[in-house]
Amino acid sequence: MKFTKMHGCGNDYIYLNGFEIDVADPSELAIRMSNRNFGVGSDGIVLILPSEKADFRMRMFNADGSEAEMCGNAIRCVGKYVYDKKMTDQTNITIDTLAGVKILDMTVEDGQVTYAKVDMGEPILKAEDIPVVSALEPVVGEVVEALGTAYAFTCVSMGNPHAITFVDDTDHFPLEEVGPIIEVHEKFPRKVNAEFVQVVDQETLKMRVWERGSGETLACGTGACATLVAGVLNEKVGRKATVKLLGGDLIIEWDEASNHVFMSGPAVTVFEGEWMLG
Ligand SMILES: N[C@@H](CCC[C@H](N)C(=O)O)C(=O)O
Predict the structure, then answer these.
(1) Which CATH number is associated with domain 127-259?
(2) I want to staple 54 with a disulfide (CB 3.0 to 4.6 A). Which of 33, 94, 145, 162 is the partner?
(3) Can you give the pLDDT at residue 156?
(4) Residue ranges of the binding site for substrate
(5) Is position 155 annotated as part of the catalytic site?
(6) Could you identify the atom of ligand 1 that is nearest to the CA of residue 62?
(7) Where substrate is bound, by residue (predicted)?
């Protein structure tokens, strides 16, 4: 089975062409392929499929086999995959996800996509739709305790759930200890992606993420979008900012007129391979 390894800011997934192959159990395959010792090694897998609603459809599975509604870094790579492999000759395409149809505007250099801007749609701020158990609306300052410390979270869904808290220093934050506790906290009925964010200035945020189903990753596109929204709601940042992640930078804008969030960032192909284990 042929696969392509790609990343967006170091958030790496294995891309499978669902036009050519039929994957019977993607959850189980995600667990095996993502394993960094016994598999290819990745944060999860992504299936590229035909769609009746859009130009293409994507399904993404975290490293633990759980399916996520949306993935910001993967959707840029799906755009690159279909353009570079000549499955489309358009640089403006639509991709169907469990979080709705998203629109991509791709930059091509020397015949290949290097960068894409994605209309990520409107952020979801209603507690029951995120979902988070909270009486707040929007959910700004929901206190969740982990290891004896109370964290004030702002909760935002970009189709998938995020909980964002602001810290003084992301570099020295004990993410491996706090992240797993927040991910499965009872206030988050569908679990949560947890973002720990340092404000650098009005136009720059630094973020580390503990992803639902994958643990710490080098970047999270939906997480960067949710973080910018949280930054605006907490009056810490303007409506357009650079979100600096361990694996690179994303530019995020929350447009006031449309209420849509736009994410811009790179998409990179690392290698192609053949999976021999069935
Ligand atoms: N890394 C992704 C998000 C992947 C899904 C997430 N772990 C979830 O379960 O919601 C991104 O770039 O958005």
Answers:
(1) 3.10.310.10
(2) 94
(3) 98
(4) 11, 62, 72-73, 160, 193, 211-212, 221-222
(5) no
(6) 7
(7) 11, 62, 72-73, 160, 193, 211-212, 221-222
